[in-house]
Amino acid sequence: MNDIAIIGAGVTGSFIAKELSKYDLKVLVLERKLAPGLEQTKACSGIIHPFQLPFKLLRSRLCLEGNRMMDAEAEELGFQFKRVGLITVAKNPITFLAIPLIILYLRMHGVRAEALSKKKLLEMEPNISEKVYGGVFIPSAGVVNPVEMTAKACMFAKLNGVEFVYGCEVVGIENRGDHFVLKTKKGDFKAKVVINCAGIYADEIAKMVGYEMKIIPGKGTHIVFADRGFTNHLVVAIPLKPNKRTKGGGALIGFDGKPLWGPNLVDVESKEDTSVKREEIEGIIAKFSPLFRKTPKEIIAVYAGLRSIAGSDFVINEPIERFINVAGIQSPGLTAAPAIAKMVLEMVSRHFELRRKQSLVRPVRASKNEESICSSLSEDEIVCLCNMVTKKQILEVAEQFKSFDAVKQITWAGMDCEKCKADIMKLLGDRILKDREEEEIAWS
């Protein structure tokens, strides 16, 4: 019997598992994909938001808290995190005159912000259009590789006793009074408490225990350009009229320094619709190009992901005794994940006497800064030339997750051109064969 079963190993479920692993609890995570973070998480922008409007919402409070926690989380888990900062640009006299009020409003809610003159803005971002009037700089914004961040949380949790079952889709739940039986394609699992972190499918999981809610998929498309260094910060325009459903995306940068524009918001019916349409690409380029003197030259990738929209706010509740929903976790869910985990821990404490473990095992930090890359060049052969990923780095991920998509998303190998895909598949296949041989020897 498990104390707690978490359904879903996206960023939210993984951080909850990480936090629970610090206590004497038997925790199980069921994930339908072959590795963590391969649904909504992998298709988000990877942006650590400095704030979320309006400030009265739960997701705004959790965003602020999660942002403040992110440096410590990156240090504890060993994922890459860069506070690159956000510049909001005034494109017209009205928004320029509003800058003092914007700064006052942000500071009232604990967000550090400073005004930028046109001259200072152009010094910080030389590619910005000279038609701008000024801007606001918010230094707390950052970028991560969202799947690496998620996988590192899972690794921490696993090292500290949490069991993960991948390729395991929950198809039914029975409430037995003092525990739940989770029916999956890999058999039945029992748990006293269930935490629903099923993302876009959280409404379907909730329905299995008799709770009705509606998750509406909202598709967001991104464009990745090749021009590293095109911008140094996240760049967005100060809107004359904020959109209630989305912040409208921005001219962002990925954790690897490449320009990342988007996302937009398109209503779709299917929870599997991650298609990218020509008009979506054209719309994103048309929206953000006026911010700059020139447009990035080469598009190397386009992709779309789905937001879990359950109204304007997160849905974190316990509608049925011992069944906790963590649903509707749209933007800024990545930023809020550590704070959500703390909130859920408090909810779990109502059902268990939490005893913190005396000692914890922490993952070995694997930095990809210039020094470590130079070191790895002398130690190992390069498999992915586009992103300078070594054979050793690929095998380290393959030992944890037997999935090409996981290797690609965590190491960034093959992300740009996929010329190295065959080599990665060969390494992954060899790793799987080695594991099988070791299992056969163990059983013989």
Give short descriptive properties of this protein:
alpha+beta; 24% strand; 444 residues; 34% helix; single chain; eight-stranded mixed sheet
Descriptive notes:
The chain is an alpha+beta fold and 444 residues long. 34% of the residues lie in helices and 24% in strands. It has 13 helices and 22 strands. Strands 1, 2, 9, 10, 11, 12, 19 and 20 form an eight-stranded mixed beta sheet that branches. Strands 13, 15, 16, 17 and 18 form a five-stranded antiparallel beta sheet that branches. Strands 6-7-5-14 form a four-stranded mixed beta sheet. Strand 21 and strand 22 form a beta hairpin. Helix 1 packs parallel to helix 9. The relative contact order is 0.17. The model has no long low-confidence stretch (mean pLDDT 91).
What separation lies between the terminal Cα atoms? 29 Å
- Give the strand content: 15-25%
What does the radius of gyration come to?
Answer: 22 Å
**Share of helix, binned:** 25-40%
Shape: globular
Q: How can the largest sheet be summarized?
A: 8 strands, mixed
> Mean of residue pLDDT?
91
Low-confidence stretches: none
Number of helices: 13
Number of strands: 22
